[in-house]
Amino acid sequence: MEHRLDTFAVWEALKEGDECPLCSLRRKTERQLVDRCLGGAVMIPDDRQRANAAGFCANHHRQLYAKSNRLGHALLVLSRLQTLKPQVEKAFDRTGMVGSKRLARQKTPSNFPAQALKGMSGTCLICRDLEVHSARQAETLILLWQKDPDFKARLMASRWVCLPDAAMLADMSDKLSENARKEFLACLRHGMTENLARLEEELDWFTRKFDYRNQDAPWGESKDALERTANKLGGWCLGPEPLDENAL
Ligand SMILES: [Zn+2]
Ligand SMILES: [Zn+2]
């Protein structure tokens, strides 16, 4: 069922024609996850427990804060703080950290209490969920490439994906049969090299437009070449929000 929903979403993202449909979907999913954390979902015991256990990274705290729901955000943080407080105390208490009397008799690890503190501060509910969704969306893209000739043709003529997502797809392609994997990697290679060459040209013209002699020459496709090339090389980070239903 989830795969069927993803099929529609991946098609929709590809039709947008951005530099990476997987990034577009990831960003849309991320916005939904941020909204969900501040919405009623946090009152559902299971969700609340997951939020308390994982917390949020700095990037997602910024995104939660930007929603200007100070009370919702504060309740999340208070709940997480109350979960963490005893754990921080335990992290400095060797017996608490190692968890059992047998282990407590062993030598105190040299990385004590850093490891326990790192474990507490290195997790994020939104990052974790986003990774699961992204992996499924990437899997769906490969599945569509394999099963739907229309999708394959559309993907072949598209801007393909960003470099980090190309890595993810290449990694996932080992689930295909040997022949299908070879063919998929050949398509990916062709798509990536062609699109990097296109961006090189577009960004090159972008830089030349700063020369006063080119002041009146048309921009062509280059006006947002900087944003699109950065998005291609590092994953979506600049320019208008992709797949934004609130955009005009
Ligand atoms: Zn991407
Ligand atoms: Zn995060």
Strand content: under 5%
Give the termini distance in whole angstroms. 31 Å
Q: Overall pLDDT, averaged?
A: 91
User: What gross morphology would you assign?
Assistant: globular
> What is the gyration radius calculated from CA atoms?
23 Å
In this entry the ligands are: zinc ion
Largest β sheet strand count, sense and barrel closure = none
Could you give the order of the helices and strands?
HHHHHHHHHHHHH
Tell how many strands the DSSP assignment holds. 0
SS-based structural class? mainly alpha
Return residue spans where pLDDT drops below 50 for at least 5 consecutive residues. Answer: none
Number of helices: 13
How many separate domains? 1
Q: What is the share of helical residues?
A: 55-70%
